[in-house]
Amino acid sequence: MARAPYEIAGTQVKAGTRQTVEVPVAKLYTHTPLHIPVEVVHGRRSGPVLMVCGAIHGDEINGVEIVRRVLTNSALRHLRGTLVAVPIVNIFGFVQRTRYLPDRRDLNRCFPGSESGSLGGRIAYLLRTQIMERVTHIIDLHTGAVHRFNLPQIRAELKNPETVRMAEAFGAPIIINSGLREGSLRAYADSQDIPVITFEGGEALRFDDVVIGSGVKGVIRVMRELEMIPAKKGPKAPRKRSETAANSQWVRADIDGIMRPVARLGQKVRKGQRLAMVADPFGESETAVVSPCSGIVICVNNLPLVNEGEAIYHVARFDELSEAEKAMDYFRSSYEGDVGDDVVPVHPWDDRQK
C-alpha cells in the first residue's frame, strides 16, 4: 500500500518525491508577500518525520547553509520517513540581516504563538500548526551572537532518552545539558514530547566551513541513528566523539578597555588560568581575565572593545576533563583532512598554537 502524501500549507507531497513549498507568512507594508520556504523530502517508506530548521534568529546564517548541504546528500534517495527542511524561519530578520523581527521581538521567545498575537506570535503559530505539530523529531540550528564565536556544540534538555540519543548521535564535541527558556521553540517542542536538540556553532553573519561541515555531518548522523537513511558502511569510529558538560560559566570583563585574548576556542583551561588581558589605550592600567573553573572554552568574544561586565569567554566544566579533551582531539582530527594545511594551524579552536 502506497504511503499517504505529506500535506503542508494546502500542498500534498507524494511519497517518493520532494517539493519546495512556499508557506505564506505575511506581507510587507509595500504589499509584497513574504513566504517561509520549506523543502519536504517524503520517503516511500514510513519512518520518523524530522524537522531541521535554521535562522530562527535572522542573522544566524550557518544553519541556512547546513540545510542546503544536507538537501544535496545522495543518501536522501533512500529516505525512510520524511525530512522537513526549513532553512529560514525568521524571514524578516534574514532579509534585514538582523537577529530580531521588525518590532524587535525575539522569535525564539514567541512560542507557542497566537493567530491574533504579535508578528512573532503569528509566525510561531504558523510554524507550530503547519509543521511542528506533525513532526516526530527536531534539530534547531543556531550560531553565536554578533562577534561571539561558538565552538560546535549541542544544547538539549537531557531528561528525555530519545533526546539524549539524538544529542550523542550528532557528534559535536561538547553537549550542554541546557535548561528550557519559556517561549522558545525548544521549550514548546519539549512540552509536546517532541525530542529536540539545538546545534550551536560559529558566529552571526559569518560562514565557517568547519562549523558548517560539522553541522551537516551531525544532521546526517542523527538521520542514520533514527534509521531514516542507511547506516554508514564499515566499523564505527572507536574514539570519543562527544562529552557532556556538568555546567558552564560566562567570564566577564571587570573593567572597560581593549581586550587581547590569550586562550583559544576549544582550549583546555585550568582554574585561575589567564584567558585575556584588558587594558586602556595607553597601557597604564591592565587587568588579567582569569578562568573561574577548569574546563573547555566553548565561546569567545572576537570584538576587542569591551565594557565592564561584558561576557568575553564561556567555559564549560566537566566531571572528567580528560574525557572532554579526547572529544576535542577527535573533533580536530576529523577535520584535518578536510581543510588545507594553511588553514588548520590558524583555526581559532586549535589550542596547539602558542
TrEMBL record:
PANTHER family: BLL3975 PROTEIN, SUCCINYLGLUTAMATE DESUCCINYLASE_ASPARTOACYLASE FAMILY PROTEIN. Its cofactor is Zn(2+). The keyword Nucleotide-binding does not apply. Keywords: Hydrolase, Metal-binding, Zinc. Gene3D superfamilies: Zn peptidases. The lineage of its organism: Bacteria, Pseudomonadati, Pseudomonadota, Gammaproteobacteria, Pseudomonadales. Signal peptide: none annotated. This is Succinylglutamate desuccinylase. The keyword Zinc applies. It comes from the Bacteria. Residues 47-225 form the Succinylglutamate desuccinylase/Aspartoacylase catalytic domain. One of its GO terms (molecular function) is hydrolase activity, acting on ester bonds. It holds the Pfam family AstE_AspA_cat.
